[in-house]
Design the sequence.
């Protein structure tokens, strides 16, 4: 019996040497957001790499608010706004259901308002999310946003995020609501 066990174990190469596995690359993240551009980069990183979902809340001030598009509040009964904790939970849920999320932000004709301690950015956006379930369709959210950033103790954070619907499209806020 012992002889049979030894033969079986030797045939499955359990005792042979194997190649080492290299550790995966670390998730990209800017720990020190010394410019508002680094905050935007972290926003992209948080959506693109699920390992950054735990860092996501770090881009917001403690009193951060996300304001849903007025049409989404009316048409889909979304909350009027929510906090950085709700944002964090939403992103964890979003990454649980989607394998690939990409964001495109484009400057609008409205000029950004940039000063030494605050920034207001006006952008159109497109977010594309590929579901992990192959039976579900790719989700695309389009709209416009205003991001209000503030500098505190030398680092930049998002203080307020306003979402706006464009021509009947699914908004980023609606996607957040569905995954919140």
Sequence:
């Amino acid at each position: 019996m012992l002889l049979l066990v030894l033969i079986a174990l030797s045939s499955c190469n359990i005792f042979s040497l194997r190649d080492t596995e290299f550790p995966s690359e670390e998730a990209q993240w800017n720990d020190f957001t010394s410019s508002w551009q680094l905050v935007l980069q972290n926003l992209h990183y948080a959506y693109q790499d699920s390992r950054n979902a735990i860092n996501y809340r770090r881009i917001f001030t403690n009193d951060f608010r996300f304001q849903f598009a007025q049409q989404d509040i009316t048409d889909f009964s979304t909350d009027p706004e929510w906090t950085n904790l709700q944002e964090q939970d939403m992103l964890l849920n979003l990454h649980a259901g989607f394998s690939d999320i990409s964001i495109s932000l484009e400057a609008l004709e409205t000029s950004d308002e940039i000063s030494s301690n605050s920034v207001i950015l006006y952008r159109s956006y497109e977010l594309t999310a590929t579901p992990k379930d192959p039976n579900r369709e790719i989700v695309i959210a389009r709209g416009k946003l205003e991001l209000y950033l503030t500098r505190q103790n030398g680092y930049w954070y998002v203080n307020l995020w306003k979402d706006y619907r464009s021509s009947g499209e699914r908004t980023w806020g609606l996607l957040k609501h569905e995954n919140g």
Notes: The mean pLDDT is 90. The beta strands are 60-67, 81-82, 98-107, 113-114, 118-131, 139-152, 155-165.
